[in-house]
Structures are given as structure tokens and as C-alpha cells.
Amino acid sequence: MSKGKISLIGIGPGAVEHMTQRARDAIKEADTVIGYVTYIQLVADLVEGKEIIKKSMTEEIDRAIAALDRAQLGCKVALISSGDAGVYGMAGPTYEVLFQAGWTPDSDIEVEVVPGASALNTCAALVGAPLTHDFCSISLSDLLTPWPAIARRVDAAGYADFVIALYNPKSGRRTRQIVEAQRLLLRHRKADTPVAIVKSAYRPMQRIEFTTLDKMAECDIGMLSTVIIGNSCTFVREGKMVTPRGYANKYGAGGETHSGEKAGHSLSTGLNGWLKEIAASGESAEVLAGRYGLPAAYLEELLNSSDAAPVDG
Question: 3-state DSSP call for residue 249?
Fold first, then answer.
């Protein structure tokens, strides 16, 4: 019997031009294609003549088990996800099923993860450049994750000033989660913080809406939407949402460095400069904690370490 294979394939937003060549090739090579009904429809031109196994939205484990069953028979299986299979996709559940069945990389079943553009990337491309600085993604679906865990993550991300992409923000049954996320974020961010809502990116029903954090929950948001919430520096201009990388802190308009800054070196207010500053201040860890919003225990450890005042360079 030939060796079976499971290809965990991210098809991106679904448009052919945004699917990687490897994703297309892996689907063509497969004997069996497994996926949510909508995802199967998005690759209809690639699956003619193959065994098709369609599953509902909540049947992720069933998809993984079906993939394992076919692969054990020696089939090449394409298990498809929209976006990237490893970002809220089928890669995780499939590995869990495989490990539970005793699978190892040396087994008779080969496993390949084929990356694809996640909703983060596709939605960001449509609205400008909101992810140019530090960002995170949080799913608001509490079907598998307890709400207190989700709320802690939203609150922490808001406090830390991350740009935030919200996946699974709202559904027919889950309508309050987006309201609670908004409530948590307004504790840390201005009401006019830019927000972009993208529905069905690169698909026929694509819709883009710009709004602000205080108006976000009033917008048309559903399971096909991704919500991108800016940080304290994000702005919208000429219909484009942009989060500055920070070049203005170091360089002038002509590309010259500001006084005290050097190309290729950390900012004077970077880690080394900051360590020198707090060491020279003579202030207690508790006072510094209030100023910088950092744990006093962390600052106490820094002040007592030999790295408190390093030499830059």
C-alpha cells in the first residue's frame, strides 16, 4: 500500500490570484479534498474528479478524523482552511488527532502544512498598512475558550498598545462579545482610535468600513468580518489606515538622523538608554513602576542587576 499523506492547506482569502502555487499544486495532487462547504466552493476549479468530503463549520474534529482515515488507506488528502491552516485553522486540530492516534513523523503518513495568507494580511492590505508595528490577533469566539481568558487577553493587548485584529468577532448567537471587547479597550484607548472592519476580503461580497473605537460595536459585523483596531499612533488619511513604524523618532524628512541618534543603533530612548536613565535616577522600583506602567518586581530586579547601566554599542 502506498504511503498516505495529509496536506494542511491554507487557501488564503479564496481568490485564485492570492493562493500560493504550492497550495494549488497540493490540491491537484490530492485524491481526497476535505473542508468546510464554502472553502470547497472556493477551489471548485481544482477538485474536479476527486473525492470530496464536505463538513459543517463546527465539525473540525470530524474533518481531521476523516483526513486520518483516508490517509491510513494510502490516500493523499488535502484538508483545506481559509487563510492560513495554522492560524485558527485545521493544522492544530489535525495534529491533536494524529498524536492521539499515535502518529509520529516516522509513521506511514506524511504531513505537510502549506501556508496561506491569513485574514490579518489580506484585510490589512485592503485598508492600508495598519500592521507595520507590533500587533496581535484575538478570537472572540467563546465556543472553545472561556470568556474570562479572552477578556484578559483583550485587556492586556489594549493596555500594551498593540494593534489588534479580532477574529470571529460576532455571529447570530454571539452578539455581546464585541461589545465587551469594546468596553475593555476603551479603558485604555481614546474613543476616536481608528478601526477598520473588513468583510469577505477579496470575495464577491467584500465590504470595507472605517470607524472609531467608540462606534465600532454599532457597525455591520459578522462571522465573515475581521476587525482591525489601531494603537495610539495609528491614523487614517486619504482612506488608508496606517500605523507608523517609528522612523520619525530617529530620522528627519530628508533621511538624516536626529541629534543623538545613529543609523543601525537602538534609539537613545531604547533599552540601553532607558536602563542608564533609571539607574541614574536614584528612584525606587515602586516610583518607576508608576511612571512606566511596569511591574515593580521587574524593575527591582533590573536595578539590582549588573546590567542596569550597560555601555551602548
Answer: helix
Tell me how far apart the alpha carbons of residues 72 and 107 are, in angstroms, rounded to a whole number. Answer: 10
d(CA 6, CA 95): 10
Domain limits, the chain: 4-117, 120-242, 255-304
d(CA 204, CA 207): 9
For 152, the grid coordinates are: 484578559
- Confirm if 114 and 7 have CB atoms less than 8 A apart: yes
- DSSP H helices, the chain, are 21-29, 37-42, 60-72, 91-100, 119-127, 147-159, 177-185, 271-281, 285-292, 296-304
In CATH, what number does 120-242 get? 3.30.950.10
Over the stretch 162-200, which tens digit does the pLDDT of each residue have?
999 999 999 989 999 999 999 999 999 999 999 999 999
Q: In the beta sheet, which residues pair with residue 81?
A: 10
C-alpha cell at 106: 516516522
C-alpha cell at 44: 471548485
Closest of 185, 144, 138 to residue 161, by C-alpha: 185
CATH topology of domain 4-117: Cobalt-precorrin-4 Transmethylase; domain 1 (3.40.1010)
Q: Facing residues of 212 across strands?
A: 194
What is the side-by-side order of every strand in the sheet holding 128-129? 128-129, 240-242, 235-237
CA nearest 123: which of 14, 194, 227, 238? 227
**Taking each helix axis from N to C terminus, what angle separates 285-292 and 296-304, rounded to the nearest 10 degrees?**
130
Q: What is the pLDDT of residues 111-126, one digit of tens each?
A: 999 999 999 999 999 9
Global confidence as pTM = 0.89
Which of 61, 39, 227, 55 minimizes the C-alpha distance to 144? 61
